[in-house]
Structure formats: structure tokens, C-alpha cells
Design brief:
Blueprint: H1 2-15, H2 23-29, E1 34-38, E2 41-44, E3 49-52, H3 55-58, H4 67-79, H5 92-104, E4 109-115, H6 118-135, E5 143-147, H7 156-161, H8 165-168, E6 178-181, H9 186-189, H10 196-214, E7 219-224, H11 240-250, E8 254-258, H12 272-276, E9 282-285, E10 297-302, H13 303-316, H14 329-344, H15 347-363, E11 371-377, E12 380-385, H16 400-411, E13 414-415, E14 417-419, E15 422-425, H17 433-454
Parallel strand pairs: 3-13, 5-6, 5-7, 7-8, 8-9
Antiparallel strand pairs: 1-2, 2-3, 4-10, 9-10, 11-12, 12-15, 14-15
Bound molecules: pyridoxal-5'-phosphate (PLP).
Cofactor: pyridoxal 5'-phosphate
Pfam families: Aminotran_3 (PF00202)
InterPro entries: Aminotrans_3, Aminotrans_3_PPA_site, PyrdxlP-dep_Trfase, PyrdxlP-dep_Trfase_major, PyrdxlP-dep_Trfase_small
Amino acid sequence: MTKLSNSLAAADIAHSLHPYTNARAHERNGPIIMARGAGVHVYDSEGKEYIEGLAGLWSVAVGFSEPRLAEAAARQMAELPFYHTFAGKANEPAIRLAEKLVEMTPDPLTRVFFTNSGSEANDTVVKLVWFMMNAQGRPKKKKFLSRHKGYHGITVASGSLTGLPVNHRDFDLPAIPVVHLTCPHHWRFGHPGESEAAFTARLLREAEETILAEDPDTIAAFIGEPVMGAGGVIVPPEGYWEGIEALCRRYDILIVADEVINGFGRLGTTFGCERMGFTPDILVTSKQLTSSYMPLAAVVMTEAIYDVIADHSDKLGTLGHGFTASGHPVATAVGLENLKIIEERDLVGNAARLAPSFQNGLRAFADLPLVGEVRGMGLIAAIELVADKATKRSFDPLGRVGARAAAFAAEEGLICRALGDTLALCPPLIVTDADIARIIARMGRAITRTGDWAK
Ligand code: PLP
């Protein structure tokens, strides 16, 4: 086993370039090679067991060993392993999944376009919105509003929508017209003494002033995650989304809910927009759509948007957009089975039921000297570590302490994600009370060890 993993590690170091990895540090440290998964656990090539506290990449809702998904994939592989959806071709799983998504998403959403990834889905949103504006004779109405710390992917357009410096720096992004607004994180961006309500009012004023300064006739859409994930798990304050929705309606700006992390139960409701109290014109979903067993994402839009696009495709002779694997039969068959499991086992209800013990358990760490803030909602949470609790001063360099804490957590048998010095948790939706208790205990030990190490 050791020899095999050693040779695998050497081969990885020799031949791979890893996403979101310091390549030189990786050459020194080597990979953690995951060999198998079972339920909420994964096992590395040395046989060490971890609770996957981030559900892989915020995505493996049904856990790591669901035989029904393997069977659904195998059945579809045997029946029709691939067919495309170009030029009017269709396949049953893609049709059924689109129908299911229309049934599950909020009422005004009626039409589905499939892509392989969340990034491609958000690129598709940008292109379809531009196509729509051109079709309507509004060629100036092209800008997107997004937020600092929002995460919408990494392709040229979706990476431009993302509001994280690491995704822009030296990649020549943003490369499309996008304006990033203040991140709705009261603890970090509220002024001293500013109440949450005053903070919300300030952000909504800023949004309106930006819209007016840019000219509403140039702004096509507002995109946001109902609760931000990769930016550090940020739950916007009460009234924020309602205010954004009202502004968008006033100035004829489309609302895009990026539900790639929130969708299918993460916040204890089927979609995050339901929990946050707004209705989007376009909803983007991926990750928990297939529990990441297959790459798949979906853009779900209103009939009004569809109608403009449909008419324009009629005028031009086609819709000149689509991926080889749009509506891939194996991916959509797995998605369909995965959504059935989420419904049958009431995993959305499970998230809602376990949210209080998960959130309250983690909030018990808020008093530790190293902990600046514990935040979250449903089954997604984060613990932000700071150098100085009173001033909220971050560690310098940012990320070193977070990486150490994540390494301690892994030693304790818990995988979490260090986003700078913020430790994110987003466990599979199948977690039990006992799993939650284990996650909290292991996280507690990791933070205590980090505190000792940082002294
Ligand atoms: N949107 C959100 C909210 C995400 O969290 C992610 C990925 O983490 C994406 C989009 C991009 O998805 P992908 O990595 O599949 O391209």
C-alpha cells in the first residue's frame, strides 16, 4: 500500500498541475491521495479515515458510497452512454431532469439549459443575457453587478463575476463589464458601531447609487449567491436580499441566484433564494445536483427570458451556444436519481433539523482567543481565525494559520477547507447527530492545537 501510494505520489508530483494549489509547495509536500469513500467518510491511500466536513467541494449531498447513483450511471452507460442535445436531439434523462428542475425551482422558472460545470453555467448566463438584450434592441444593457467575495467560477466571464482577488490577479480579469459591490458581511465590513440594519441600508444605498451612476440602461443583471460560500460563508443581513430584489425590479435589472452551493437543501430549504426571501429570474445550480458523482450544472430561467431567446434563435436560424455534453444522458440520469434520493430521504428536512446543533455547537468556539467570528446557516458554516480578536486584525500573511488549522483538523480526522484563515464546513446532507458531534469535537481540538501552535 505504502509503496503504491509513494509511487502514485511521485507520479502526481512529476506530471500534474493542481487547481487551487501552490505548485512548488505541492512538489515538496506531495498529495493526499483519496482512495475510497463511504457515507460521510473518505479514506486516503494510507487507510486514514476522515469525515468529509466539506462534502468534497460543498457538493456530495448523499455521501460517498451511494449505490443507486452508481447503478443509475451503469444503466445509462449500457443503454445510451452519450448523446448530444444539439439540433433538436434529446434524450430521456435530460428531458426528465429538466422537468424535475422546473418542478423543484421557484414558480416563475420554467426552462433549463444544461452545462458541465458551475463556471460554464455562469458563462452561459452572461451570454444568454447579452443575447437577450441584443435581441430586444438594448445593446447597451450588458453590465453585471456582483459582490466582492462572491464566487461564480473561474472561466473568463464567470471568473470576472467572481469577486476574489486571487481569481483576477495576473489572469487579466475582469474581462467583461462587471461592477463589484460591497460584500454583505456586517462583522467584517460594518463601520464601528454601525447596526446590522444601518449596514444593510448603507449597502442598498450604495447599490442604488452605483446603478444610477452607471446608468440603469447599461446594467443587465445582478448575480449573487444567496449565502456566499467560497468567499468565506457569508450570510447577508436581514432585509438585504429583499432590498436588492426591490432595486432590481425598480431599475429593470435581472436577478441571477447562483445556487451552485446553496441549492438542494444546504440552508434547510430546497433553494437558498427561498430562505433569503427573493425570487430570481435565473437560477444556477450544480454540485448537489448530482452530488458531484458526475459533472453537471443547469441554468433555469423564466418563460419571459426563454421567449426572447427562442424568438431570436428563430430569427438567426439557431441558438449559437452549447457544449458537447450539454444534457449528457449519464450525468442527467445520475442527477435525476440523486434528486429522488434527496426527496425520499428528506435530506432538506435533515439539514433544517440538524442546523441548530451544528450552528450552536460551532458557536461555542466563538469565545476562544483565536476565533474572530463563527457564522453560517443550515449545514454550512465558517470559523474565522484572527490575530487580534478585539480589532479583528487578520494574521499576516493571511492563510498560514488557516492552512495549519486545516492540517490539524485533518490529523484529527476532519476535512475542512481553509479559505485564507477562515475554516469552512459544509458536511454531506446525510449527516447524523452523532456525525455533527464528531465534527464539532474534532474542529474544537484542531482550533485548540492551532492556538497553542500560534503562541
Ligand atoms: N458558483 C458557485 C457559487 C460556486 O461555489 C462554484 C464552485 O465552487 C461555481 C459557481 C463554479 O463551479 P465549477 O467549479 O463547477 O465551475
